[in-house]
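Reproducibility note. Readers wishing to regenerate the assembly model reported in the main text can use the exact inputs given here. Chain order matters: entities are listed in the order in which they were concatenated for prediction.
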Amino acid sequence: MSAATTAPARRRLSPSSLARWETLLVLLLAALVITGARMSDVFISSRNFANLASSVMEVAIMALPMTLIIITGDIDLSVESMVGLSGAILGTLMVAGLPLPIAMVVVLVVGALGGLMNGWLVTRGGLPALVVTLGTLALFRGLANVLLGPTVISVWPDWFTEFGFGTIGGSPIPYTLVVFAVLAAVYWAITHGTWLGRQVFAIGKNKETSRYSGVPVSRVRTWLFILSGMVAALAGILLAARFSSVRNDNGTGLTLTVVTVVLLGGVDINGGKGSIPGVVLAVFVLAVLQNVLRLVGVSSEFQGIAVGLLLVFSVIVPQLARQANAAVIRARGGRRPPAGPVPTGEVNAQS
Amino acid sequence: MAASATPKAAGPSLVGRVTRTLGRSRELTLIALMIVMAGLVTAGAPQFLSPGNLGQVTAMAAIIAIVAAGEAMVVMTKNIDMSLESTIGLVAFLVGVLLRGSLPVPAAWAVGIGVGLLLGMVNGAVITAFRIPAIVVTLGTLSIFRGIVFIFAGGKQVDVADLPPGYTDLATDTILGIPLFVIVAAVIVTAVALMLWKTRFGRQIYAVGSNAEAAAILGIHSRTVTFAVFALAGMLGGVAGVMWGIYFGTIYATSASGVVLQIVAAVVVGGVSISGGTGTVVGAALGALFLALINNALLVLQMPQELLQAIYGAVILIAVSADAFLSRRHQVVAREVRA
Amino acid sequence: MNGSIRRLAVGLAVVAVVAAACGSSTATTAPTTAASQAASQAASQGATGGTTAVMIPKQINNPYFDVAFKGAQKAATDLGGTVTQVGPSTADATQQVPFIQTATTQKAGAIIISADDATAVAPALKDAMTAGVKVVGFDSSPAVGAYNVFVNQADTAGIGKGLADMACDIAPSCTGEIAVLSASQSATNQNAWIEAMKTTLKDPKYSKLVLDGVVYGNDDPQVSTTQAQGLLSAHPNLKVIIAPTTVGIVAAAKVVRDLKKTGSVFVTGLGTPKGMQDYVKGGESPEFALWNVTDLGYLAFAVANQLAAGTIKGTEGETFTVKGINSDKPYTIGKDSVVVLGPPFVFNKDNIDQYVASFGF
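Running the prediction on these inputs yields the following structure tokens for the assembly.
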């Protein structure tokens, strides 16, 4: 299995190379900020910061559980549909007369249940996460369609709309940024500071070894999917608040952005490697990049290409670095580097 | 094989034997299901089986079947190609523009298929040269290729008035009563299936997908095989793009957006396992037909449109679960045989 | 160490690429003026030249909106001012909002917008108006209160009646089953037009037309095609398909031709002249309609200019004139600050070639 053959090389590179990836992200972010300030005199302004921050908060919070899921070697493609479904349920319940805060709790429970479905199919059913979540991507969206149909729910309490769209006092900090900050801090602490976090990495590096070492692999993986579902539901709430509007196609297209941000943050698609700070940096790199492109007037087609290129480069660069490092070791007369990982698209290392 | 070592299923009941045969062959299961579905639907809506309706359904299914064959090969090598919908869109638009510019039809088709091949080679090159997981690369090229279509379109669309007279009739022409598109799809899928079954290259594809290290030991260059498979998928995507242009006539910069779900669904439902190494292109083609028929059945029976997506998702989940369930039964049985 | 120097080099290369990408101006159909230019122009707008307008269509690179943009550009040349076109690559309201916010941040003089979703864009538009940006809706209206003036391409009741009349014209003896193939289920425009059409159909004149139902093609060619196929399968006696969407009408006409029902099933609705040219001549669609999209863009920009200059405020009852449009007759702002462009055009095989030439799309 690829993990076994490259484990020695990876262990030697892992912690320090991640730190270097985050350095790269900081450099990139700085370069983008400088470029933005140079090209547009409104870039550095509190209004612009509020705009660019609030535009990515849904993606940002979903990137956190997605990071852990990808680290364990799985993936969750269904998040964008859970955003749509949660918005649909939220709106339907509100229109039916349920107080909004209670409706929000119900929605989070539904998100957890959706995640549980994903988790069970992946762990108990032993099915690849890619295909299961492809199926639930369609299923959840379908449920949103059935629930809402042609209706657009557009009347919401003022406090809800203010929460989604407004900033704290006169400052440039959107309320939703606070939500993200809290979640990010929690994920940071758990992932890098607790035993649970280490279990997640262990599962990603080698499922079997982890299982034999007593890690409750299935339970951890299932819980990660449950969390992903809940956070996606929360993102659905934020989206509804920001746009005061719920339709059956809310959230379409978000999955790709979330996966892009996670990979840009240095998380290895094969599992076992990644960091929350990296992903947080990547969120802002993406937000600033899109903001600068818009300010400069780059048309949308190029924006789409830019994000696609960013995704590809974010995996090419570490690979190039790895190959460069291996070449250096070889040149120094060190032992022959192990064969590189066979190109696979498999996200769920099942063997 | 499993046949002699399943004491529980050794009973002579017809039902038992039928389900066992079906269980071993996804293709037969799909055909059986389609026959049953056709029977049920026609009972409620006889026009389901009318030549006009079937012609329309099979034309679209034929296009998906061709590109699904390419995707199936990619999945067999344990990869995935998420960018094929953009390839289809780009080729369809390009061919339309070339025809608008009075390029002869065969030349336009050749350019279109060539571009598909080129795009597939780009995917293959990036994946094998940099050894990056295919899902990441093809998610990236999904956006990049679509961006190229937008730029190339420059705010215009291809209209039927731009095309040679009678061009779109090819989509409904029949030979001896069988739609031309179906014949083309059948020929292509058969050719690919034969290649997979009979040639060494075909066996290498299965080998790389089921156990890459063993394949490497046997001297199979997995990178070459992977590159070739993506190139082939791109080329088949180009063919599908040409047919897409013939079928729809009017092509927008956004044409074929969202098709990747249908392609992957067809492949999965067709029995090609995401873990690589098993499945057939015939299965993928039948999967495409099966899903197209479900879609049409819902419409003919006037069921609420909202259900469509939900049913798609459910069908994918059922198909994949069936796969896992069956492969586990085979493992149990195989263990019994060895024991 | 060698490794970190290599990494630094790679990092700087990435930075260079990004800086280069940001620095290059991209040539597309929309002239991309640098943001700083736009900002400084906005600062000096007012009595001298026209306003700096930012046009945000439902979707960029859409031929319909490109033609409207050309109309707006012509207005800018004639009346003074500038207009740029920005927008999302998919017709998604959540992607429109960042463009609205950017225009606000850059202190544009006016935003001219066709909303993907009436309410989703409202918070951002209201914010823009508070910041002093004039907001002109066109084609698809933002929510009431989130714009200064909405330029409607045609009177909603008028379109509804027009759809019913065309169906009556092409159905033999105004008799038979009809069905509607619409855009997305939540499309404000289409839903309003269909409601107006249903009201019109209650009149005894249309009593022999039976509405079988409404299906939705989501403005997706593939979905529209399968929905049209479904309509014909489910209703074998269908006589007319009404598709008040340019994507849907083309798909319906194609399906009628493919199923060889030309002459027994007819298609009408709203379509682009060039898109439907072949189907008009082929007989699948003897009649369909659209408004002058170039004029729509022209009028929208003219209104933006006048709002920015203060000659109109957008209140009901105000009148204004735009030379070259509406035969120089004055417009009156109606309820909810709506201005109607004028009557739509009905295309048929006698005038289709001429309109393809003059409309250009």
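We highlight two features of this model. The mean pLDDT of chain B is 86. Chain B touches chain A through 56 residues (CB under 8 Å).
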